[in-house]
Amino acid sequence: IIAVSPKITEISSDISINEGGNVSLTCIATGRPDPTITWRHISPKAVGFISEDEYLEITGITREQSGEYECSASNDVSAPVVQRVKVTVNYPPYISDAKSTGVPVGQKGVLLCEASAVPSADFQWYKDDKRLAEGQKGLKVENKAFFSRLTFFNVSEQDYGNYTCVASNQLGNTNASMILYGE
User: Fold this and answer.
1) Which of 32, 86, 112, 176 could connect to 98 by a Cys-Cys bridge, CB 3.0–4.6 Å?
2) Tens digits of per-residue pLDDT, 40-80?
3) What distances in angstroms separate CA 130 from CA 113, 120, 150, 164, one per listed residue?
4) Where is the Ig-like domain (predicted)?
5) What are phi and psi of 20, to 5 degrees?
């Protein structure tokens, strides 16, 4: 018998899936003797193998199960060969932090809205029911992947009140209210 090192001949492509969907990954390898195939999730919380054959099925995937999955083919002829598949799990925005803030008149004030979402959330701000436009006098809106910051350079009495941050992506939207008040 001629020993042949393992070789992965076919592996699933990177995939993007909505939370709750089902994922099926495949890893086919050749070699002599036939290689043993295992799948594992590359993540700090992951322990050991999650599949001991060519197929990995995940039903009702959660956001915690996103990341890289590694297929390993080994047959003791040489070191195992490994390849990875990236699984992106999409989910609607979830606002994790939105605090009211007290600021005296004439001072600089900041309202912060933090949200996690995949794909990243788009943010909009409203005062009462009126949308705040970027570049409005005395205001600055900074949007990043995981938060939006509303800055008042010189707080006036008129700025006090209720503000709503709306975070949205293709899967949905959510909002949180906060108050800018005097000290």
Assistant:
1) 176
2) 999 888 778 899 999 999 999 999 999 999 999 999 899 99
3) 17, 24, 15, 10
4) 6-88, 92-181
5) 95, -15
Give pTM, 2 decimals. Answer: 0.87
What CA–CA distance (Å, rounded) separates 118 from 50? Answer: 24
Q: Are 99 and 110 in contact (CB under 8 A)?
A: no
What end-to-end distance do the CA atoms of the chain give, in Å? 83
Phi, psi of 158 (to 5 degrees): -65, -25
* Multiple choice CATH, 100-181, 3.50.50.60, 2.60.40.10, 3.40.1080.10, 2.60.120.1060: 2.60.40.10
**Residue that has been written with the tokens 């939207």 in this structure:** 173
Closest CA to 126 of 168, 163, 173, 181: 163
CATH 3.30.420.40 holds for 4-91: no
Residue whose tokens read 């099925």: 57
CA 138 to each of CA 63, 68, 132, 152: distance values in angstroms, whole numbers, following the listed order = 39, 45, 12, 6
Q: Are 56 and 39 in contact (CB under 8 A)?
A: yes
- Rounded Cα–Cα distance for residues 147 and 100 (Å): 15
Query: What six digits make up the tokens of 63?
Result: 């956001």
* pLDDT at position 28: 98
